[in-house]
Amino acid sequence: MFSRERFAGWYRHRFAGVAAILLASAGVVVLVNVAGPETEQVDLRGQIIARMRTTLEQADPEQHHHAGHDPRQVATGEETKPAVVCGVHVYGYEPAEVTALADVETVYAFHLCGIAEQKRPWDVAVKLVGPLIMDMSTEPSGIQVVEATEDVRFVDRLWEMFPARYAELAQAEALGESEMADLRRRYDTAAGL
Predict the structure, then answer these.
(1) pTM of the complete model
(2) How many angstroms separate the CA atoms of 103 and 84, rounded?
(3) Over 70: is that where the pLDDT of 117 sits?
(4) 107: how many CB neighbours lie within 10 A of its CB?
(5) Beta strand ranges found along 95-165 (DSSP E)
(6) What pLDDT does residue 66 have?
(7) Are the C-beta atoms of 157 and 149 separated by less than 8 Å?
(8) Is residue 53 a contact partner of residue 83, using CB atoms and an 8 Å limit?
(9) Is the distance from CB of 114 to CB of 125 less than 8 angstroms?
(10) Which helix (H) or strand (E) holds 88?
(11) What are phi and psi of 113, to 5 degrees?
(12) Among 2, 38, 162, 176, which one has the highest count of C-beta atoms within 10 angstroms of its own C-beta?
């Protein structure tokens, strides 16, 4: 039989085990609740990137050329138009507090696109590159590329077009390593390399 002391020890450990399980469950609930909004934000950013990439890749390259790069330099001997393959880095979007893609009106980003002619390596491909603003409130989305003019330097034009917090990022950030690796992989596939 159980002694009173043994029974009290068993009973006390049983409550300690139940308390540990309850605390662990509460911790999981807190972790799930904490991760919720950040996951939505990451998902929204991913949706924005996917839509921007699709828009840029389907747009006529003349819509987002700049800095003297003329997409018509591409050889015209091919039967079909070469694919445009783009990488995108989003600096931010407006309104900043939205959580659904349908509510995003304007995106401030960097784009790097290569025109994937068959068997033409990345290093010699025609490229379209630089900061841009995409108006996602229209269909199709509007593309406005930051360009220098005869009277306005590129950096000054960037600060005219972008809000200050995004202009600072645009001067320092472009595609990251993983974004660039993904772009190069997709370009090589499109160019048949």
Answers:
(1) 0.69
(2) 27
(3) yes
(4) 24
(5) 106-116, 127-135, 142-145
(6) 46
(7) yes
(8) no
(9) yes
(10) strand 83-94
(11) -120, 140
(12) 162
How far apart CA 112 and CA 180 sit, in angstroms, is: 9
Q: Using CA atoms, how far apart are residues 187 and 76, in angstroms rounded to an integer? A: 19
Q: Are 105 and 95 in contact (CB under 8 A)?
A: yes
Residue bearing tokens 């018509």: 72
Count of CB atoms within 10 A of residue 110's CB? 20
Residue range 59-91, pLDDT digits in tens: 876 554 444 444 444 444 546 788 999 999 999
Q: List, as one string, the DSSP characters of 42-98.
A: HHHHHHHHHHHHHHHHHS-GGGG--TT--GGGS---SSSPPEEEEEEEEEEEESTT-
Long-range contacts of the stretch 176-181 (C-beta < 8 A, 24+): 176/89, 179/87, 179/88, 179/89, 180/87, 180/112
Q: How many residues does the chain have?
A: 193
Paired tokens of 179: 């974004």
Q: Quick one: angle between helices 164-172 and 154-161, nearest 10?
A: 140
Phi, psi of 112 (to 5 degrees): -135, 115
Quote the CA–CA distance of 191 and 115 in Å, as a whole number: 9
Q: Retrieve residue 59's tokens.
A: 């747009």
Rounded to an integer, what distance in angstroms lies between the CA atom of residue 50 and that of residue 62?
21
Q: Which two tokens stand for residue 166?
A: 């995004």
Beta bridge partners of 36: none
Q: What beta strand segments (E) does 49-105 contain? A: 83-94
